[in-house]
Amino acid sequence: MRRGTRYGALLGPLLAGGTPPDLVERAARGLGLPERGRYAVVVLGTPVPEAAVAEGPDGDGARWWWCGAGDGDVAVVLLGAEGPAGAVARLGEHGAGPGGMSPVVGSPAELGTARRLAGTALLTCAPGSREVVRLDERLPTALLVSGPELSARLLAEVFGPLLALVPAERAVLVGTLEAWLECGGSVGRAAVRLRCHRNTVFNRLRRLERLTARSLSRPRELVDLVLALDVLRLWSAPP
């Protein structure tokens, strides 16, 4: 792994996007980046822990180049045999995060786009989270954070009456919906997770349906509820 002013100066043109091809080629050559490879960019919301920055490749052959960027750090990763999952796991082992990882790109010329997409992935992390997430696993949420005005409208339209409840009452209904979704739509399993009777879960869900005027049994309306729930998770307080 490599880090420092020199690497930041060389990575800057690659990560900015829109850099002329000759400058991209020179910067890549200076960093020792192969012309073709499986690359990803990681954007952290906090500085990378020193334990995560070491000389030499990872056990699976992945190589990292770090540079500072505001409150956090940015890395270009030449992925190893374990691919993106291995890189994310390594960051998690060293307590890095929150962070976002771009989709895989095939050359240094594509790192500017990857940097932008990694930044979008970072925005999908909930407040206070330490997770490092891959954009490819957060695409619906990424759409929401890319359009904050529409996200605010969605939240108000779908969850407006729910947000008017006192916080404790709202938390119970939201928590029940989350448990039901995580249990694959099973009321029985959600009841076990929440340590209450299945009729209690059923009644809470029916109340949520009445408040939102949307049915959990209608796919399009369920999509509205899931997306609104994602917005609620991302914002520490409703807009």
TrEMBL record:
This is Helix-turn-helix domain-containing protein. Residues 173-230 form the PucR C-terminal helix-turn-helix domain. It comes from Streptomyces anulatus.
